[in-house]
Structures are given as C-alpha cells and as structure tokens.
Backbone:
C-alpha cells in the first residue's frame, strides 16, 4: 500500500511543469534505521532523508523527522518528532518499560506526506516491585542502587526461580531458590547465592540464567566496598566523621529494628536512621540448614562475588552495631538482595 501511495504522488508531480515546460520531479527517499541506546524509558531514533527535486518550486511548510507509536504503521496522527537535516537522529524519552514501539521517518509538505520503512524496538524491562510500582533508586557517586530489596521470583527470561520451604531440601540445594522469611508471605524474600548466579539446574554444561532485569545486576564485593567508601567520605558516619566505618545508621530504616542502648547503634534512636536513603529493613536470614533467625535484628545482603567454591561474600547490618560488616558464608544461606545499575 505504501509503494502505491508514493508512486501515485510521483505521477501527479510529474504532470506539473516549470515555466519552460519541463516536468517537475520531486522524489524524497526516507530510510528509517535501527533505534540505538535503548533504555527502560528512552531510545535514540536514526534515519536518512534525501530528496531529488528537478524543475519544482520549493515546497511550502516542510516538516520532517520521525513518527512513532505502540501500533504498527505510525502516521502524523501519532507522536511526531521534528528533526532537520539529511542524517537525522534524536533522543525520545518518557517511554514505557518493556514496550514495543514502531517508528517511521517522515516528510510532509504541500506536495504530500511521505514515510520511510517501519522499524521497531522494545524498551528494557523496568524495575517493578512486588506491589506493581517502580522500584526507587538513589545515585551514590558513580553508582545507582535500588533502595528496596529484590522480590522477583523469575529469572530475566521468565524462567521461575523455585520457592523452597522445607528445611532439608533448602540445605541440600546447589541451584537457585527463594523463600519468604519464616515461609510467611507477609514478610521479605530471601535468596540463596545460586539464584544470583542463575544456576537453575544441576547440569554443569547448561548456561546460567540472568537473575536481574535488563540494565541491572547484583553488586560485586568490590561494588559494595565502593558504596561503603563513598558514604564514609561524604559524612554518613553517625558521628559525622569521614574515617572509620560507622555508616550503619545512615543505611538502616527508621523503624523495625530491635532497640539497643549503644550510642551509634542502629537500634538506638531509630528516628535518626536512614540519612543516606538506603532504607534497610531487618528482614532476617535463613541459615544453610533451612532454619530462620534474626528478624528485627539483622539485614544481610549477598554480593555476586564468591569467596570459595561453596561460599560467597555478603554485607551485614545489625541492630546493635554502627558498622556495615563484610563477611562470607555458605551459598545455601538465604539473604536479601539489592541491585546496581549496569
């Protein structure tokens, strides 16, 4: 249908003549190229618009650029972005995550409306929490962190991560799994280390899955250290100093922790917690034997970095301490997870 329309336009224009009787030939060529730099909410559109014009007056009211929509064959009735030039490119924003968009280069003037071939692209998955709302994030220096715990129960490609409730089964796992603390759906989600690694079966030859949504990953041990050093250097120690690790209160939520008398401890005057916005709640942990412990007293976060074959590094916040601790534990342990932007 598009080819018939363009041919019709050219034939009409060829019937016009200039003052000397030469036929007017007006032939725009529009190429829509693949979108680039695609994120959850933005993309760069690219194309080429070239025009062959012989014996024609300059068209009036010329506009050109891109049209796009979530339905095929977008037109000027859809979203229009004007871009001048021959090799055209522009960034569009405000898109919906995990959505397919259709794009065409366009040119319009008093001689007609012209469109290039259609291309499509799909925005990246956005981070959505268990309530269906966007996950809040904060930039700390060169890093962007989620400030809610991960709660998804599938890998990036949609493969389910098994929920394991029985203690002996949990203790024998060598592949990914998750659980609610105390197997109570009203409480937080904990993962073993194998889930982070995307180990979804016991075949060593099977490629691992991706745990995190597109554009995000589980922080490494080094990335946790970078966050720690940034918070210390920027005065988030509870006493305002910029040496020593006393950042636990700045990272902990203002409610939910067991109380503690020590000055500087998370559990002491919780109203002064969370100055950096990391908003850690004490979700507790699941031991490698499958039992649960330390709700209201502890929050532990996995890193992606292995310590040994069967152990991984993690970070620990406790209600009786002012320190973000670094330690390691067996990979069957169940801890919370935060994500860092790629």
Residues:
């Amino acid at each position: 249908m598009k080819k018939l329309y363009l041919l019709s336009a050219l034939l009409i224009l060829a019937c016009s003549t200039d003052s000397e009787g030469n036929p007017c030939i007006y032939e725009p060529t529009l190429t829509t190229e693949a979108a680039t730099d695609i994120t959850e909410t933005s993309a760069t559109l690219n194309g080429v618009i070239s025009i062959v014009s012989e014996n024609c007056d300059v068209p009036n009211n010329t506009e050109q650029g891109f049209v796009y929509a979530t339905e095929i064959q977008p037109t000027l009735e859809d979203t229009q972005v004007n871009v001048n030039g021959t090799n055209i490119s522009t960034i569009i924003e405000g898109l919906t995550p995990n959505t397919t968009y259709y794009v065409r280069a366009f040119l319009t003037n008093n001689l007609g409306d012209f469109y290039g071939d259609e291309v499509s692209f799909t925005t990246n998955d956005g981070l959505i929490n268990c309530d269906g709302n966007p996950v809040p994030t904060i930039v700390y220096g060169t890093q962007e962190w989620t400030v809610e715990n991960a709660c998804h129960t599938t890998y990036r490609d949609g493969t389910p991560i098994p929920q394991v409730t029985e203690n002996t089964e949990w203790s024998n796992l060598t592949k990914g799994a998750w659980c609610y603390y105390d197997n109570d759906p009203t409480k937080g989600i904990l993962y073993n280390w194998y889930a982070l690694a995307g180990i979804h079966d016991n075949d060593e030859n099977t490629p691992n899955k991706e745990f995190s949504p597109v554009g995000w990953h589980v922080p490494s041990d080094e990335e946790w250290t970078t966050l720690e050093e940034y918070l210390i250097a920027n005065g988030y120690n509870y006493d305002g100093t910029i040496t020593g690790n006393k950042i636990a209160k700045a990272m902990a939520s203002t409610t939910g922790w067991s109380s503690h008398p020590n000055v500087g401890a998370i559990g002491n005057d919780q109203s002064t917690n969370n100055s950096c916005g990391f908003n850690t709640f004490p979700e507790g942990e699941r031991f490698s034997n499958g039992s649960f412990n330390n709700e209201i007293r502890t929050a532990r976060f996995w890193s992606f970095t292995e310590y040994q074959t069967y152990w991984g590094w993690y970070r620990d916040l406790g209600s009786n301490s002012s320190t973000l601790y670094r330690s390691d534990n067996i990979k069957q342990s169940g801890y919370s997870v935060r994500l860092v932007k790629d």
Observations:
- The first strand starts at residue 25 and ends at 36.
- The CA atoms of residues 149 and 338 lie 5 Å apart.
